[in-house]
Write a structure and sequence with these properties.
Structural class: alpha/beta
Strand order of the largest sheet: 3-2-1-4-5-6-7
Helix content: 40-55%
Distance between the termini: 44 Å
Strand content: 15-25%
Number of helices: 7
Largest sheet: 7 strands, parallel
């Protein structure tokens, strides 16, 4: 899968919307983009609109899909940045965790934690070769957990543990690892969350995806001798 240009390569999950799409748009000027999401039709259109891009369809809740995705991405000539933006939300009190809710918890952890670890592990040889950067889009909930957010916050606390361990393990190999913790962002996920909270959604009340994308870009483009370990981005 030889690339047709000399651009650095950025792999972005959750690339079809929200923070993932904003990050792709910001990096498009100087990176070859590898877009990963579930919607093939939307990915095809997005890839065609960017200066240099390709796409892969995968459901990150599926270990089989991830295994296939890793095999495909391992054929890339290089990977300079891996941005984990895909995520799913959960809402509800612990007292309500029954068999159905437990299945939802498993899905949340599969996408928000296990997929990140499995995909990163498969691409580490390329990231080591390029001294690349791994960026995990975490959350304010990955630092502080409030009521009714146990499933989501637990997954994001776990994600922080994954990135902390990965950073310690891969620093000798020249791979940088950044954990980005935004506050509430104006995305489809936020609309879903506000509906669960029985509240109104006003985009102006939240961070814009482009603001978080700028923080991600800064981490990726930081001087090679520096590692941006964690970024917290909050709305004013």
């Amino acid at each position: 899968m030889a690339l047709q240009n000399n651009r650095p390569v950025a792999v972005i999950t959750g690339a079809s919307r929200g923070i993932g799409l904003a990050t792709a748009t910001l990096l498009a000027e100087s990176f070859h983009l590898v877009l990963v999401a579930r919607n093939a039709e939307l990915l095809q259109k997005l890839a065609a609109d960017f200066p240099s891009a390709q796409y892969f369809v995968a459901d990150l809740a599926s270990a089989v899909d991830i295994t296939k995705l890793v095999a495909q991405l391992q054929q890339l000539d290089r990977i300079d940045a891996l941005v984990h933006s895909a995520a799913v939300i959960g809402y509800g009190p612990i007292a309500a965790v029954d068999e159905e809710a437990a299945t939802s918890w498993q899905n949340i952890f599969a996408v928000n934690v296990t997929a990140v670890a499995q995909l990163t592990a498969g691409l580490l040889p390329q990231l080591r070769q390029s001294h690349g950067t791994v960026v995990a889009v975490n959350s304010g909930a990955g630092l502080n957990a409030g009521s009714n957010y146990a499933s989501y916050a637990a997954s994001k606390f776990a994600l922080k543990a994954v990135t902390d361990s990965l950073r310690a393990e891969e620093a000798p190999n020249g791979v940088r690892v950044t954990s980005v913790h935004p506050g509430r962002v104006a995305t489809d996920m936020q609309k879903q969350l506000r509906a669960a909270e029985h509240g109104e959604y006003h985009a102006a009340d939240y961070l814009q995806p482009e603001t978080v994308a700028a923080a991600i870009q800064n981490a990726i483009l930081a001087p090679a001798a520096a590692s941006v370990d964690m970024i917290s981005v909050r709305p004013l």
